[in-house]
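fold-stage: in
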Amino acid sequence: MPKLGRANVVKICLISKYPPIEGGIAAKTYWMSRGLAEAGLDITVVANSSLVEREYGIQKIDKQPATIKNLEVHSIESSNPWHIPNSDHAETRLLNLLLQLHDRRQFDLIDSGYLVPYGVVAYLANQITSIPYIVRHGGSDLAKFLDHPEYRFLLKQAIAHANLVVTDRHNAKVLGELSRRTPIQPTYIPDERIFKPKALRPSTAPTFAYIGKVNYHWRRRGLDKIAELFEGIDTLKWQLLFVSQGTGLDDFRNSLSEEMRQRIIFRPFVPPWEMPRLLASVDYIFSLAVDEPMEDPSNLVLEALASGTEVITNRKLPAGESVHQLDLSNMSSCAGYIGHLIQDFKQKDKASTIRDSDKESSYISYIKENIQAYEHVIADASK
């Protein structure tokens, strides 16, 4: 792992989603904080994990991997004085926690992982303490908040005043109009030491899976299409797994035929450190989008491909033997394609595709790139 060329350890505050919050941003914060700490930085994570709704929180968390030196995680608690009108006031409490920790640790930089509330809190902390800060975003926060009349002015101020706004190629133009400091970076790089192809497991039938949230708009993720694909396949030699929670889960289940309710295996969310083992047990994952396709693949798609798990999608993903493209306008053809995957299933030796361990991984390069960005921001802010 990279080492800093400084006598003093750089102290970074990451403020973002974090487990037991489910989803790509929380998982990214988990893996990124560990990678940065392993590289020698002093990392403090500030989160509001305890406030997550039960439907979107990981309820059963197995024992976490061993604690990493230079990494601390702090979260505001769920208790809050009742008042009228009642609110959890997450922004105020996150800001209070960050400032309290800064008083003790003296952070060199704040890195926020999502615009609301974390980017806003980083901006406010900067206004109070002058700590330089970085703004990052997901996809949903830009779509939901950036042009919303009750968020727009504040968010544009937070972006314009940021020392760095890390974005992707699809949003560089929009954010470039608000800030001149908008480097393009991959949204996420899985750690190839952890997400790597595994050896064959004993199985004669393929396992398909959907892994993710099931909210009220579950049709936008094509969950009804997934069920429809398997309705007409009478072979017993397949498994369909849903690792899911959310406010729309009961509605989705009720939409299924009795046969499909019996055939689909439902499981709750797993924490990020359990995802490599889950993906090793799955042959294909679904990543569908109906009406509002996302340009970039989700973090889970990247983790699956790194693990040797194949992806079934209608999104615009790079072509490859591990990516299966479906045209959902012809469901009969799609069902036939799935049927052929089941009929012709033969386990691939995933372990044979493991990368050359002597070559520097993309993940380590990704961590190095972030460290270099930190050093440039801190150096510029100190001038």
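fold-stage: in (second)
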Amino acid sequence: MGQLPRRLPRVASHREDEAVSWTSRLVLGLLAALAAAPATAANGNIPRTPPIFPPHACLATVDRSVDARFEFKVGIPFEDTMRTEDELDDSRTFEFFALCRDDPPATAFPNWIDLEDAERALAVGNIDALPAAADVLAGAARWAIGHDGGEGSCVHSMGPRIPISCDATQDGVAWDTTGVPAGNYAIHGYTFAPADNEWTPRTGVVQVHDGTPLPVAAFASPVYDATVYQQSGYRVQGCMGGPARTVVTLAWASIAAELDGDVPGVWTDFAELDAADAAFDVLLVPPQSAIYEGLVMRATAEDGAGHPWVAYSRGYLTIYPGDDPSDEPEIPPGPDHCAVGEEPTAGLELDGGGDASSGEAGDASTSADPGAREGESDGCGCDAGPRGANALPLVVLLALRRRNVPK
């Protein structure tokens, strides 16, 4: 435990009157500022509770010609059901969404799902004014473009809101994909707790198709910010699949660049892969010019017959000079409050040291995958873990320890 700060020295007696006067003015100023501040719920200063996603395959496939349901597990860092008097009845709940595209890790998501939620929050005094259109998911131009680049929503609710409790989350989430377009989906959890709501991404990709696989790729590392020594490099891992001749291109870019879209000169390719291999485990040795940079990864899966799928890593690589051991691409999941007494599950790993049976073209299976769940394909054994560390409470952060690989 760090040393507590020492007391400030006592003000000299001949200045006490001046100090009292200054303190009085400060208190009055703060009270005035608080009175003028926007109205918020009494839970405004409480960190929002994110869902925890236990280990799972980084690529899950839903073949609707066989079964249209997809199920996945959800954990919680603690139960959060004690609402304050001025909160909405459905505050402190989870809702899960499937988005038709992946986005760079710094992408800002709208705070509100629809205008009705904001209007209810306004009515009880959680907010002082309705949000701008760009801060409402429903109807926002960015999220009104479907898989094919045309009309059709990119956002699909996976079910009703559920309380943040063990009873409500113990069965996980079951998503009926019958009514959604075929394609790849990134899953996000949404914590509804006005005035400040929170998004939590689930690492990996879920592909929905009707018997014909689609180009796809997903990262299993990095999912957290990792320390990398330039000469040692870092193992970038993930899963991929698609029809015959699907090619996956891996690239890196500085986090300071414009990552959304394909701006010339931003992305540097470092691997071209055959998606039939199902899994990838590529050593990235960044150039010296990347030292002291933060890097994000991108994977583009394309078969030349349609729109490519683009996936981004959830975490960053921070590059340092030298050849010391870099962080492993493996971090255990955060503790699940409702799973006390259960055996811990391993973090990010590829089965067989990175070897995967290719099977038929587009099959993303391996000989064994202890991280896969019912309703998922065997995947590549890549555990996706919970969201980035910046969204977890301190008790979760303390449980996330990085391990080094030997030189």
